[in-house]
Write a structure and sequence with these properties.
By secondary structure, this protein is of the alpha/beta class. Helix content is 27%, strand content 22%. The model has no long low-confidence stretch (mean pLDDT 94).
Length: 245
């Protein structure tokens, strides 16, 4: 299995396209195709905050429908899904940028992109277990004991991480460093918590390097376990990063 797993894109389509090109993909008929047959993986949070969330949705949807990518939802994906299904959600924390993009479309275009995202979300698993159990892709991570299982508690962990319910001095939700305690044999590749550099810890890899906050958009090449990154063109916001030891 040859797979390139992309960190949280958050609407940074320009960076996402540039990263695929650096990885050796050629955009053929509107889709990135690798000459060696590699597939793409996504840790979720395709949308919100960046300038072209709908473009990213279109890209990933078409990859998904051509069996050329593995996608799992993030917490921002979950919130957008609930919004598009008509639920009462607060349009904050970046969702407002995606809603603004949607509101600039005509009714037919809006209906089409809505159908695409709902289909992508509903047909994708909460997390992916790949390569005969050797690789797991989960948005905010997953405990070893929970791999292969589903529950409300596991869903919360996979989408939001190991949260305490507290807020730190930066005004951000406190997240425990679950990777420090991970003891599984499978590689768990995740994002959700922006770090300055891709972090390897106990068979886990955090590849969210904060592209939308002006740092890097990163990919992990599997099984090589090589990191490929590009610099983001967004404004840098230091307080959004939460590096661990």
């Amino acid at each position: 299995m040859l797979i390139d797993i992309i960190g949280d894109i958050h609407g940074c389509r320009k960076e996402w396209v540039a990263l695929t090109e650096k990885l050796g993909y050629k955009w053929t008929d509107g889709l990135p195709v690798h000459p060696d047959g590699r597939k793409l993986g996504f840790v979720g949070d395709l949308t919100d905050r960046g300038p072209d969330s709908l473009g990213v949705i279109n890209d990933v949807y078409h990859l998904f429908t051509h069996d050329a990518a593995y996608y799992v939802p993030g917490n921002h994906c979950n919130k957008l899904y609930r919004y598009l299904k008509g639920n009462n959600v607060k349009i904050i924390h970046g969702l407002e940028t995606t809603v603004d993009e949607l509101n600039r479309l005509d009714s037919d275009e809006k209906e089409l992109i809505t159908k695409k995202f709902i289909e992508l979300y509903e047909k994708s698993p909460l997390y992916q277990v790949l390569d005969n159990g050797k690789l797991v892709i989960a948005h905010a991570g997953i405990r070893h004991k929970d791999i292969g299982k589903l529950s409300k508690q596991i869903t919360t962990f996979v989408l939001y991480g190991d949260i305490t319910g507290e807020i730190n001095s930066k005004g951000l939700p406190v997240r425990r460093d679950w990777a420090r305690e991970y003891n599984g044999d499978a590689w768990v590749v995740y994002g959700h918590t922006p770090v300055h550099q891709v972090r390897f810890k106990n068979q886990t890899v955090n590849i969210d390097t904060g592209a939308v906050f002006g740092n890097l958009l990163s990919a992990l090449r599997y099984p090589e376990m090589e990191v490929v990154s590009i610099q983001s063109g967004m404004d840098f916001i230091e307080e959004k990063f939460r590096d661990f030891d």
